[in-house]
What does this fold into?
Amino acid sequence: MSTTPRDSQDDPTTPAPQGPEAPPADDAPVVEAAPPVDDDAPVVDDAPPAPAAATVPGAHAAPRPYPPSAPEPRDEAPLTPAPAPLGTTPPPPAGFAPTPVAAPTPTPAAVPTPAAVPAPAYAPEPAPTPIPAPVPAPEDAPAPEYRSRRDVPEAPAKPGAWRHVLAALLGVLVTPVGLLLVGVGIARLADIAGTDDMGTDALGVGLLVGGLVLLAAVAVLGIWSPALPITGGALWGVGLGIAYLAVPDAMEDLVASITGDVPAPADQLAQTAMSGYLVVVGTLLLAGGIATAVARRRGRRWAEQVAAAERIRAPR
It folds into this structure.
């Protein structure tokens, strides 16, 4: 014989839990108490199983002789209020008191103190000089002229040192001839000066004119090379003239020892040299040669500067 345990809640003798009693509802069903079960009644284990009753909601609950207890309140999540429409301020919830907010106190702004900037250990690099933009040529500007190789003149060839050597040699050979002719002509004309024979010595006049032509050629050839007048004037003019002025007797003895006898032209040249003629003519030739050399050099530099300026200004 087996005994089936019963639920403590289904036993009517079990005391109900203490709690607030709720009044019965008007529409609640009335449940009658079941008759007590006799413990001495025989229990038949071999009885056929009872048919399964239809499942009805709430059929498993046993009838209770006491009124049902009130349902416990459930913790429901607070409802989130719907967002207020734009442009309106939602009302504060009940029991909410706004806390007064104190006005912010303005804080004085801190004035930064300029710190001393240390001097750089090196000098700053200069700023680059801006390059000006090229100026476009005006529309009415003349078109550049293109020249062929035939139109462009070639630079003249620079003469070598041989011309100076040849000019010095000509100065040594031609200058004394001109000085001698001029000296002899002056001496012949000086002999008949103040007499009735004045103007009748054609030889003296011819020698004088020939000597002047040679000396003029020596001075003009200084354009080709300044060495020609400088060499002739310094050697035969200034040098020989100073010697005749300083030691005239020694110069006459030297001429006599070379020629064996003092010829008339040499005697006439010595007379003019002692009067300072050679020094004057030699100084003029020397000064002319130096002036020609300086002018050539300055003219060359000036021409180079002019050519450079024209090259820069020429349209490209």
Summary: Residues 1-26, 43-47 have pLDDT under 50 and may be disordered. The CA atoms of residues 79 and 93 lie 12 Å apart.
